[in-house]
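$ fold --in a.seq
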Amino acid sequence: MSDKSTIKLNGREYDFAPGETVLDVAARHDIYIPTLCHDPRLDAVGACRTCLVEIDGWRRLAPACATQLEPGMEIASENERIDRHRQTLLSLYMTDHPTDPAAAEPGAPNELHAMASHYEAPMDWGYMESLRDARPDDRNPYVLFEPDLCILCARCTRYCDEIEGVNAITLAGRASETTISTVDKLSLMDTSCELCGGCIDVCPTGAMGKKMPLVRGDKPERELDKVRTTCNFCGVGCQLDLNVDRDARDGQGRIVKVTSPPVGTTTNDGNLCVKGRFAYDFVHHEDRITTPLIRGEDGELHPASWDEALQAAASGLLAVKDKHGKDSLGFVSSSRCTMEENFLVQKMSRAVFGTNNVHQCAAT
């Protein structure tokens, strides 16, 4: 083998860094290798076997996600042998999996279905009823487990262990009865689960789904518009994607789901807490104030324009300052504001009104 830190992948030479895997180099150069159990945030386990590649001189196919590169390796990610393996493997996966797309994709897109279609996996091997069981009495309000859709890739249990560190769910049972479970099959509400929804985010088949409604009407999720924004529940500043059904609410649009941005693209690396992922229903709540209100001489609140509201607020603050002095004022901002907005609040307090009485509830 050559001493150079290069390998050949599908006949082309690529550099690699120590510790990188076949999948790392392939992903960096946009070479598609299918995976079902892989997530870049998790330790590679090579469990799903969909990413097997052929390495010159190796008798068996090797998992691309778990095989570290060595100089001089010659690797093929596509050939007749590999395609035959993937077709057979995906057909086996589909034998106890819903074949009807409507049943297989109740919310999130089903990566197994898409992969089986891509590789034209034979679907005439018959159907075997899944023996995996769920927790039908789980009273948690957010996470739904549909065992028929589970392929035991263990992404969810590994995420719960390696990223969240709470170990609320695990693989339980033996052989064909192996399933995703909790201690004594307790509700997630009675375990260490933080209801972060990470298990939902990493699931490739939608077996881990949301109990909250995902869509309105018959509009499938993949047609929703995604709007990138900053979560405002605390001062961390996690990025999230609001999934908006533009046809809902008389054409005005409605947020029907929150998802994580792709891993590695934001500071939160695709992770969200229970508030960021699930607490979005306040946006369309019927009691939400949607226009400025000014209290009139009758003591009641009346709708006003933003210019009128800002003028009323400024006049009121200046009147207090003139009557009682600048230090009679105090400004309290919110952790649900951005850093830039909080900066402006303290600038208004100090530079405009001349007082240092300013605070923000997330200050340390």
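$ fold --in b.seq
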Amino acid sequence: MAFSTMSFLVYFLPAAVIVYYLIPKRFPALRGAELLLASLVFCWVGGGLLCVCTLCLCILVSYVCARLAEGKKKPPVIVAAAVLIGALAFFKYIKHFSGALAVAMPLGLSFFVFQALGYVIDVYRGTVPAERSLPRYALFMAMFPQLAQGPILRYAGVANDLPGGRATLDGFAAGLTRFCFGLAKKLLLANAMAKAADMVFGYEASLLPAGLAWVGALAYTLQIYLDFSAYSDMALGLGRLFGYEFPENFNYPYAAVSITDFWRRWHISLSSWFRDYVYIPLGGNRKGYARQIVNILIVWLLTGAWHGSTLNYIAWGLWFGVLIVLEKPLMKTGYGRLPLPVRRIVTMLLVILGRVLFRSPDLGYAWRYFLSMLGMGGGIESGAALYLLLEYWPEWICGLIACFPLKRLLEKKLRDRAGLGGIVYTWGPKAAALLLLALSYMKLLSGSFQSFIYFQF
């Protein structure tokens, strides 16, 4: 059950919110129980019984292993890692080893496995105490706003708000506004870019003229950001509705001035997870430059494998790993002193090439696509590129605007203004959210459903 469906917007969400707020604030345990039950229903409707059973297994294993791991006891951590990573690997790779056995990936598995494993490791390190209450821990793991696509939560960040959250009227209004902006970003922008990208990537790569190949790559680059950041906007907004503040997962990554900077801004919860639980334990940059290179490549190999089981995902991970390795010494040369706009353009070109690897069905297709981007393809009418630009020109413009912090800059200018500026700052986003909500409902009624990209991971 995606956030952008009528069943969620008209039935599930209003019911979950109304029942939650009918429970008096002085009964936080009951509010937590209601949210946990709603989350399990969300998991069951969206992923079926298998999803619920897998989630419950991960909750029980990580809860018990964390209790046993207190006091820096390593064996329970190894058991938790074996079970959790084993479950993730089974669902991701079983299709490659058994043509007869086809098992659908449980909703959100990649995210809640990492969340559970991070919690066990934090308890082992003494960063947080093991949670004694199983219902409180289950709520931390299963909260439906972030269950399917993150952000990957750290227990220390939400422990003080469990089980009932800290709901306020201002938080509710801010959460609802953020949710509406995310919903519109998904339905009005990301889905349009998806149609353009799907059209181009639906052709044989060797038949693409250069212009159409670049338009397709740009469309997918916009789509994946607008789609994934839209989900994060909605997740953070829903969290505020129930009194929880989740960490930001995106910080305008397409404004990055380097590949390293890009990955500090993109899918922040995953990048920081690999940094804290893989890169630093491997030694980070503390054991010499050669070891640091190996550690970086290991992290990016694992990042690629986390996203998918085919070779193009592994190549995608290594692409960024190699770029980061090469970038470190390069930044100490004249490249590091180039104007920021030039470095932003170079960074985005490298990111776009990585997107082609990510979107392609296999490495052969990606290679032929790259050749077409260089003008070595052709066969399709070159006017198709112009058609896609003109057909979706409002979405191209609005999508590009959404990729950069113009809204943040405008809010900063209006925040301390008196008079009309203050009124616009206070009520402008809320009025815009209502308008976007109306447009989103109209789009839902007239259009077809388009799933979130990261549901497949």
